[in-house]
Amino acid sequence: MENAADALQMAAAVLIFVVALTISINAFSQARSVSSEILDYNDREYDYTYVEENLNADGTPTTERIVFLESIVPSIYKAYKENYKIVFDDDGDTSNINANNILGNDGIYRVKDDAGNYVPVFTIDLQNEVLGNDTQKEQFLMSILYGQCYPEYNTVKDRFRQNLGIYLNDKGIYDKIKENGTGEGLKESLGIYYQEETPSQDGTTDTSGDDSSVPDSNKTIKRVVTYSMPN
């Protein structure tokens, strides 16, 4: 009887172990499935909207489309979230960047040149704006987007001027685009290059200073979004 009782206890322990193992495996499988689904649904606009089914009149693919503020604002956030470079240029010819018609003559923000003149900046690029932590980046984005409508604008404006030499504009990008007659939207053009290489102003890539021994898989992809006036 004693041996039978021990055998039953061992059988019960094995059964409990198998049940627990089965539950654990199912739990991990469900967690993995949910994680994959979240990643698939995350940022659908980035995955599907920009280029897919965007065709020229002759049916050939294009990386251009007409967009409005509801698409422009998320792209500006991506400048820091996903290593984007955002360029505003009236005619889309980035050999001479100027977006006075879109953003006015004070640009996205201003910096001082060597002569002490205020120079408008028409691009947003993490490589150029040396910002510290995520809080500072968010304050910068909110300030350039909404200007003095951003509750912390005055504090942020003084801090950025004193510490970083960035002169923020009271009127943000959002209001400028709304007020400068862009009711027909802006033309969005997409480009891509490796961050380790230097793109020339005409959109081509100058690799003269690049180390060709570095494989492309080890380079950082940089996406460029240019907004210009529609033709």
Secondary structure elements and pairings:
Elements: H1 2-41, H2 44-49, E1 64-67, H3 69-81, E2 84-88, H4 100-103, E3 109-112, E4 118-121, E5 123-125, H5 134-146, H6 153-164, E6 167-168, H7 173-179, E7 186-194, E8 198-199, E9 205-206, E10 221-228
Parallel strand pairs: 2-10
Antiparallel strand pairs: 1-7, 2-5, 3-4, 3-6, 7-10, 8-9
Structural features, described:
Helices cover 41% and strands 19% of the residues. It contains 7 helices and 10 strands. A 5-stranded mixed β-sheet has the order 1-7-10-2-5, covered by helices on one side. A 3-stranded antiparallel β-sheet has the order 4-3-6. Strands 8-9 form a two-stranded antiparallel ribbon. A hairpin with a 5-residue loop joins strand 8 and strand 9. The radius of gyration is 26 Å and the shape is elongated. It starts with a helix and ends with a strand. Residues 40-55 and 200-209 have low confidence and may be disordered.
